[in-house]
Amino acid sequence: MPIRTTTVPSTLGSEESKPAELETPGSAQPQTSSSAGSAPAASGPIVRVLRPRRAAPAEAARATRAEINLAHVRHNYRELCSWITQASASGRTAEIWPVLKADGYGHGARALATTLERADAPGLCVSLLEEGIELRGAGVRGPILVMGGYYGRYRDGIEALVNHRLTPVVYDADQLQDIATALRYLRFDKRFGVHLKIDTGMGRLGVTDDELGTVLQTFRNCAELELAGLMTHLACADAPSLADTEGQLQVFDRATDNVRRAGFAPTVRHAANSAAMLRLPTAHFEMVRPGIAVFGVHPCPDHHSRQTPRPKLKPVMRVLTEVVALRDLPVGARIGYGYQWKAARPSRIATIPMGYADGLHRGLAGRGHVLIGGRRAPIVGAVSMDLTMVDVTDFEGVAVRDEVVVLGDQRGRFGQDTITADEIATYSGSISWEVLTSISRRVPRFYREP
Ligand SMILES: *Cc1c(COP(=O)(O)O)cnc(C)c1O
Questions:
Q1: Which of 50, 157, 200, 296 has the fewest CB atoms found within 10 Å of its own CB?
Q2: 440: which residues sit within 8 A by CB, 6+ positions away?
Q3: Residues acting as catalytic residues
């Protein structure tokens, strides 16, 4: 059977308004390591990248859109770099590998990856094999760590991993066997580095104390594998107290000792997400994996204690739309599904073309706001699938086509204000991570300042 490499159709250029230079000709071809002994074949893909087609800016009639400010991504990355240099007491500074899982937290992984690679990010992290392949398709050349640790039920997933030079996180002996088998099959002639995940308390993925011996024995039996990194994931790095996190780090240190005593010398260790990176320099090790902070959102909005440093981060995403309809209602008029809101005074109501199917959470009804002219207008009535109403009674001269900001800042004739992802998360009983990743594929992303 011929070895088939996975190819990802490159549709970025037609889908997203980015300058042509971000998409270089040929960059859609995965970079196949020649030492893998395989050439990219023309036959069809085996592992497909699920990339639901997102509304393209050029095709969008509706004004609802997300603006992704790439200059802010660069700023945040550099800010975190200089911050971590100061924070590392030892003089040795951890590398920052930004996490671009879930389509770069909804910002568009491809454009972000290109931007971060140009800003000299030494590596990137994703969750899925498919996400790693997508970034190779976008022309990313540097190391990509696939953290989710799941490569499919069949060998082709692991072959795709190897052929795309993705670095897998592994957490059990069977995976190691499968990777070793695939490497032999591909006649891969170098040692293939993998990162071993240790479960230090998250209870999700990772090798437990009991399993470590078996896993290390498997590494010994599979000469083609190299235990290049050790990692863990922290459950409570954003909690007010860091005691649980310190407990996890102790478990991680013990596991590291056991690994080293068994004769292995992993060159990197990593544990820190954004919160641990900012709050706990002892969690830095050789590299850190911030996600949310790179997108300009602080992982711990609530604690302003000395324990939580605040580098100057700039939110990368703004979500905008515009007024499409206005109506004047008498006292007592009710609006929206379930008639959840009733006019207590003669009211002017504006309708915006964005609803929960776009990622505007239903929990915002009666609580959240949008910005019009730089001032807050309350969301009234139920948020429906495609449309939402806001009370603009006090907004003199509001007209159809006026810009409405759902997430981000706005300056206008009434003032200046900002709706943060944290604010939306509070009203919707969620977290900023979910607010960002919920902006759906129906909302086209426009890239600014590439
Ligand atoms: C998502 C994720 C991160 C990044 O977390 P943030 O809180 O967004 O910084 C780091 N490591 C792993 C394993 C993750 O899944």
A1: 50
A2: 357, 358, 359
A3: 101, 337
